[in-house]
Design brief:
about 350 residues, alpha+beta, 11 helices, BirA Bifunctional Protein, domain 2, binds 5'-O-[N-(L-tyrosyl)sulfamoyl]adenosine, about 20% strand, 3-stranded antiparallel sheet, 10 strands, 7-stranded mixed sheet
Length: about 350
C-alpha cells in the first residue's frame, strides 16, 4: 500500500477515537454500555476491523498504524472500565432479576443526566425591609438594640402604663405562655409589640437615649390583607432634654422620605396609646387609600417615672413601625399573608 493509504488509516484511527469516546460519554445504563463495547471493542467491532486492514499496508506503515491502533484499543478499554465502574457505583446498572425497559433500577440515579442547578437563597423580604429601615434610622443617629420574643407582662404592659385592669390591654389580644405566674415580672407572654424595649433600655441607661429595636410580635388576630397574627415591628425611642413633637414629626417624615421617596403622601392622625401623650398614627397613600404603618407619640411622663427618669427634666418620643406594611406600600404587595406562607413564587421576587 502507498504512503497515502497509511495516512488514511491513521486518520480513520483518530476519527474512530473521537467517535468512540463521544459514544461512550453518551451511553447511559448497562445496556447502552454493552452495546458500545460490542460496537467498538467487540470481536467483530470497528477497532478490530481497522486492525484487520493493517495487512494491506507496507511494513513501516503497518508498524506505525498498528501501534496507533493498539494504543487506541488500550485507551478505549480503560475508558470503558472507568465508565462501567462509575455506572455500577451510582446504581444505574441493572442487577440480576431487575426488569424494566430502561435497564435501570426503579429510583436509581442516572449520573449521565445533566446536573440540577442549585438555587441560591436570599434574605426574607421582611428581613430585607427591616435592614433598610434600620439603616435609615441608624443614619439619623439611632442605635440598634434587640429584645426578647418571650417577654414578661411587666415590660410588655405594666411599665408601659397599662396596669392589669387597664381596658387598653384588650387592644392587643395576647398569646400567654404562663398567665398564672405571679413572680416579680408577672405573667410570661409572646410580646404583642416591640415597645417593651422602651422600659428595658431606659432601665439600663441614663438619657440621652436614641435606639431602634426590630423584632417579631404576636397577637391573636383574625388575619386579613393587612393583619397577621405574627408580624414584625421596629420600635424607636429618643429621650433627652428639650425633645418636642416637632422632633417626632421631623424624624418620621425623614424616615418616610428615605423609604418611599419625596413624592409619596403621608398623613398623621391623633391616636391613643397609654404609653404616650399625645399619641398619633402615620399612614401612607396607596392609590388614594390610606394605610397605617406606625403608631407614635411623646413618651408619657408616667413611663419616664417608672424607669426613674425625671419627666420635669426629660422628654421623649417613640414609635412602632410595621415593616411588612411598609414593604406592601413600597412594592405594591396586596396581601400581608404572602410574607409567612412560605411560597417561593412570592419569596423569590425579592
Ligand atoms: C405607639 C406609640 C409609641 O410610643 C411606640 C410604639 C407605638 C406602637 C404600638 N406599640 C403598637 O403596637 N401600635 S399598633 O398596634 O398600632 O401597631 C403598630 C404598627 O405595627 C401598625 O401600624 C402596623 O404597621 C403594625 N401592625 C400592628 N398589628 C399588625 C401589624 N402588622 C401586621 N399585622 C398586624 N396584626
Amino acid at each position: 500500500m502507498t504512503s497515502s493509504g497509511a495516512a488514511d488509516t491513521e486518520e480513520s484511527i483518530t476519527s474512530l477515537k473521537d467517535e468512540a469516546l463521544a459514544g461512550l460519554a453518551a451511553a447511559s445504563g448497562a445496556e447502552a454500555l454493552e452495546q458500545w463495547r460490542v460496537e467498538f471493542l467487540g470481536r467483530k467491532g470497528r477497532l478490530t476491523g481497522v486492525l484487520r486492514n493493517l495487512g494491506s499496508l507496507d511494513e513501516s506503515a503497518r508498524r506505525s498504524a498498528g501501534a496507533a491502533a493498539n494504543r487506541l484499543k488500550g485507551e478505549l478499554e480503560a475508558a470503558f472500565d472507568e465508565r462501567r465502574t462509575a455506572s455500577q457505583r451510582s446504581g444505574t446498572e441493572t442487577g440480576p432479576g431487575d426488569s424494566g425497559r430502561s435497564g435501570g433500577r426503579t429510583g436509581a440515579i442516572d449520573v449521565t443526566l445533566p446536573g440540577r442547578r442549585s438555587r441560591t437563597g436570599r434574605l426574607h423580604p421582611s428581613t430585607q425591609m427591616i435592614r433598610e429601615m434600620l439603616e435609615a434610622f441608624n443614619e439619623m443617629g439611632f442605635q440598634t438594640v434587640e429584645g426578647n420574643e418571650v417577654e414578661l407582662e411587666r415590660y410588655n404592659f405594666d411599665m408601659l402604663n397599662l396596669p392589669a385592669d387597664h381596658p387598653a390591654r384588650d387592644m392587643q389580644d395576647t398569646i400567654w405562655i404562663d398567665r398564672s405566674s405571679r413572680s416579680e415580672g408577672g405573667g410570661v407572654l409572646l410580646r404583642t409589640q416591640t415597645s417593651p424595649m422602651q422600659p428595658r433600655t431606659m432601665e439600663k441607661q441614663d438619657p440621652p437615649v436614641r435606639i431602634v429595636s426590630p423584632g417579631k410580635c404576636f397577637r391573636i388576630e383574625a388575619t386579613d390583607a393587612t393583619h397577621e397574627w405574627q408580624f414584625h415591628q421596629v420600635e424607636g425611642l429618643a429621650v433627652d432634654e428639650g425633645l418636642s413633637f416637632a422632633d417626632l414629626k421631623g424624624t418620621l417624615y425623614e424616615f418616610a422620605r428615605r423609604i418611599f421617596g419625596a413624592g409619596r403622601k403621608v398623613r398623621f392622625r391623633c391616636d391613643f396609646f397609654p404609653f404616650v401623650e399625645p399619641g398619633v398614627d402615620m399612614s401612607v397613600d396607596w392609590n388614594g387609600r390610606w394605610v397605617e404603618i406606625l403608631g407614635a407619640g411623646m413618651v408619657h411622663p408616667q413611663v419616664l417615672r417608672n424607669v426613674g427618669y425625671d419627666p420635669e427634666k426629660y422628654t421623649g418620643f417613640a414609635f412602632g413601625v410595621g415593616p411588612e406594611r411598609v414593604a406592601m406600600l413600597k412594592y405594591g404587595i396586596e396581601d400581608i399573608r404572602h410574607f409567612f406562607s412560605n411560597d417561593l413564587r412570592f419569596l423569590s421576587q425579592f
